[in-house]
Amino acid sequence: MMKPVKSETIPQLLLDRARRTPDMVAQRHKRLGVWVEFSWARVADEVLALASGLIAMGLQPRETVAMIGENEPEHFWGQVAAQAAAGRAVSIYPDSTPAEIKYILQDSEARYLLAQDQEQVDKALEILPECPGIRAVIYWDERGLWFYDNKMLHTYRSVQDTGRERRKSHPGEAEARVDSGQLDDTATLCYTSGTTGAPKGVILTHRYIFDNAARLNNGFKIRPGAQYLSQIPLAWALEQISAVVLGMSVPLVVNFPEQPETIRHDTRELAVEVIVFSPRQWEGLASGLESRMLDAGPVRQWLYRKALAVGMARAMARLDGRRLPLWVRLLHPLAQAAVLWHIRENLGLSRVKWAMSAGTAMAPEIFRLFHALGVPLRNMYGTSEYGPVTLHQGDVFNVETVGRFLVGDPDLGPPLEWKLGDSDELMLRGGAGFAGYHNKENSTAERFKDGWYATGDAVSVTKDGEIIFLERVSDMRVLGDGHRYPPQFIEMRLRSSPFIKDVMVIGDERHGFVTALINIDEEMCSSWAERRNIGFANFADLSKRSEIYELVAEAIRKMNGVLPPKSRIVRFANFPKNIDPDDGELTRSRKLKRGFIESRYKDIISGLYTEGVEMVSTSIPISYQGGGSGILHADVPIMTVVATDGCHVRVHPMARAAKTQRIIAR
């Protein structure tokens, strides 16, 4: 095998990989039910053709190429092609609204937009008059677009064809741009979730991505040729690190599912070994499993609980570094063969050896469940600005933590250092560092304190050097009597209930106690209700049922039992609709937009803090999948949960039944 060259940029790494292992499978994409393979030589050819086509269209060094679509090879090639042409890339969440796309195109100063299909092209055409910097929209899925007549539109293939012709007439031009790249050039802009304001474009240099890839691989030690499932959006910095750079450097075989809805089926076909899900996805898998077991017969439920107990005993002993009890060693092979392996196979996780949760905190109960099933799930903590920082490493770690600090490449930066600042805020320096926000020097300066990067996260450190994530410093709440409590910690624990999809805890200096708004899990709650012959017409009707309120109250009872008395949830209400990014209530990475939610649901929140109120009438704007909008009129019950001894919970009876909800289309 040829000796690897020390690459300074992602395109240089790609060309080196293609030179050394041209025929090795680099990527697979399921198309019309068939897995299509791409070798490293083929990937390099596709990237250089597109890069040359962009150069022919006028792309200049340091200009931005934006792209929007699901994770597909063309999306991946577009990222690297923009960098190969000495430009920079920015990826946009595929479910972004036209207004969100416009903001990123304008803020990133994008000159070209690569769009997946008709849906994304339609959104682009809607905002083009307000984005005069865009010179062309290039799309790769041509279905439904044959008769679009707009001089701004170009097919992906036509740009590549132009590029291949240019490579003949300008030999070595694209390669020269690749060779001119340097380690500290901007590779991509990664936009923050925007929970408290407009998203900011984090500058990710090639040094940053290489250093963070080295950190992750030092923590995971992934074997070359492992099968990786690419499904978290390329708008995440983590996917740039994992699918793009680890994919080239380890290397991995990067697999793209046919569509988001087929991920579980596709993972079963592939026998995926490396997988990264957000906490909400892991929680969704856990809730789905619980839902199916509720539908199972009594014998199957008994077998599941017994096998899970054996798996849990084995997993906890291994994580604690203890010797396995004899009964576990005897019973686990039977539990594995009869139950646990089949569950992993059904979830598409039968061969997973490197599994990670990333994005936000997740309840330890979820980690314990997957370890009991035999899935080696690990938690990772990091930020878009600094990359992966800690990870569960080795065979022994504490699932209550987010792991120990990672070690990077000493050639790319000094070792990571940390300290705790005011309010136990985690402060970092070392590694590739934080290069700043695009065109926002003041915001960049605000993140540094005496040369240390301020993460904004409050943490504690165990005696073993593992980090426990507590809360965003800005989200720590203080009640009217001065009592401090961590809302995200409470929310994370409540989301471990299969009946709760999302939570927003409320209570600050204006209030004397803690309350919560609950987004029930529609699939789990509807299944539970149907088995008990509880009638409901829609989500709004289901969410107000007294039986569903009792389910939520039981989860709150368990949560309250582990909290100090003043931190316990006293009253709660269920959202009358699923909270949704399209309605502005969540970011595209499904983080709560707290300020927006507090404003939209102020009537319900007021009812939570008004003595004697057991029902609140409210009207809420909603968006439909087809693009329309409307108003949801709902009467929302308020339930009081009174903790008497930390364990027992008394639930006040609700007043009258709520009125039927009415949706009036605008």
The end-to-end span amounts to: 65 Å
Task: Summarize the main sheet.
Answer: 7 strands, mixed
The structural class is alpha/beta
CATH class placement of the domain at 476-665: Alpha Beta
Radius of gyration: 26 Å
Outline type: globular
Task: Tell me the CATH topology of the domain at 476-665.
Answer: GMP Synthetase, Chain A, domain 3
CATH homologous superfamily label of the domain at 476-665? ANL, C-terminal domain
What does this structure look like?
- It is a single chain.
- This protein has 666 residues and is α/β, with parallel strands linked by helices.
- Among the domains are: 10-182, 3-Layer(aba) Sandwich (Rossmann fold); 476-665, 2-Layer Sandwich (GMP Synthetase, Chain A, domain 3).
- The protein is 37% helix and 24% strand.
- It is built from 21 helices and 31 strands.
- The strands form seven sheets. A seven-stranded mixed sheet has the order 7-6-5-3-4-8-9, sandwiched between helices. Strands 12-13-14-15-16 form a five-stranded mixed sheet. Strands 17, 18, 19, 20 and 21 form a five-stranded antiparallel sheet that branches.
- A hairpin with a 4-residue loop joins strand 17 (417-420) and strand 18 (425-429).
- Helix 1 (10-20) runs antiparallel to helix 2 (40-57), helix 8 (206-220) packs across helix 9 (237-249) and helix 12 (298-320) crosses helix 14.
- The radius of gyration is 26 Å and the shape is globular.
- The N and C termini lie far apart (65 Å).
- The model is unreliable at 643-666 (pLDDT under 50).
